[in-house]
Amino acid sequence: MYGANEIAVNGDPQTDVRYIRITDIDDHGNLRDDDWKTAKRIDKKYALARNDLLFARSGTVGKAFIHKREDGEAIFAGYLIRFRFDEKRINPHFVFYYTLLSRYMLWVRAIQRPSVQANINSKEFKAFEIPLPPPSIQNHIVTIMRSASTEKKQKEQEAAALLDSIDDYVLTELGIEMPQEKENSIKNRVFTATLGEVSGRRFDPEIYYQVYSLHTKSYPMERFQDCVLINPSTSFEGYELDTNVTFVPMEKVSAKYGEADLSLCKMVAEAKGYTRFRDNDLIWAKITPCMENGKSAVVDNLEGGVGCGSTEFHVFRALEGINIHYIHALLRMKSLREHAVLYFTGSAGQQRVSSEFFKELMVPKPSLEKQTEIANYITHARNQAKQLQQEADAIVEQAKERVEHILLQ
């Protein structure tokens, strides 16, 4: 059955029926919770029952999801197809785990119709042939895959906890105590500002009311703009027009790890109009939602020592006595990114953090040795998190290999 053609709207996960769309399902068949929606109108004929299997028929074609009791009440959207199975003959979870195998994905790539948006219809999905081993073998395969998925999830939770702990580590090491959020009362929303504070500057009430401070008694405070050059110029003078330099589009910057993939290049002749940077610069996404997500990276070992990339990057270059990785640690803090939102300019959907934000920012300036200690700890924590993620992925891949071997016997 094809899903509902309804408008997705914001809802309350505690009281509303979830509206499951293709974008809510990740590549492993899990539900994402970062964009929870309900539908404008709930039609019960699209209600999901336990063990219903959904297939993406367009977009990320072939992606699958099996509905479990703990997922709660939900209906599904039109670009998904629902299948229900005769559970006397086949375990629906066996079918779901089969969709994670390479043989299924090979079929998807072979059968999908190339178009502006690839798609597979319900008849084609119905015609797909699947092995039907005895129930005992099906259940054994489900146990293998379910166990691997559980181990994978545990590893990923450990990795996420490591990454989430970085902000607290930075604040603790610098002796920063973030103020408690004020109660949202009329009394607390009233504030004063002197004429000198607002003369020649923006006067957005939220900026003055929601004061953000990294103040600490442990180290001297410094203006951010006295620690780094903000959007400095980078010259390609002396480079031949056919010389390759590193190219970093926004999608090549990891929000999760704060790293950039530096594998792409452009010739100097093609670099006109892009943001330019050089080795040991920090690139920081200024546009929504990339900024809120934490897309930023220190770039090093660039082709020819220089690079270019998205026009939506701010670039920061460390001055003497500053470790740029330490600055990166400060700018990646979630609390700082949330406050930077107040300095957005531009139209909805194209809003960017203005350089005004950095002119106002004060940061702790410990010794260079302390900055390096903090930066090294964070690098180690991120590497540990990446290692855990790699181990998590390997667990599932090994389980898939076991299942493939069982099905080939």
- The number of helical segments is 12
If strands are numbered along the chain, what order do they take across the biggest sheet? 9-16-13-14
Globally, the shape reads: globular
Kindly, what is the distance between the CA atoms of the first and last residues, rounded to a whole number of angstroms?
Answer: 34 Å
**Major pleated sheet:** 4 strands, antiparallel
- CATH class membership of the largest domain: Alpha Beta
Please give the share of residues in helix. 25-40%
Relative strand content: 15-25%
State the domain count.
3
Q: Indicate the mean pLDDT.
A: 92
Quick one: CATH superfamily of the largest domain? DNA methylase specificity domains
Proper CATH architecture of the largest domain = Alpha-Beta Complex
Radius of gyration (Å) = 26 Å
Return the CATH topology of the largest domain.
Adenine-n6-DNA-methyltransferase TaqI, Chain A, domain 2
Helix/sheet category: alpha+beta
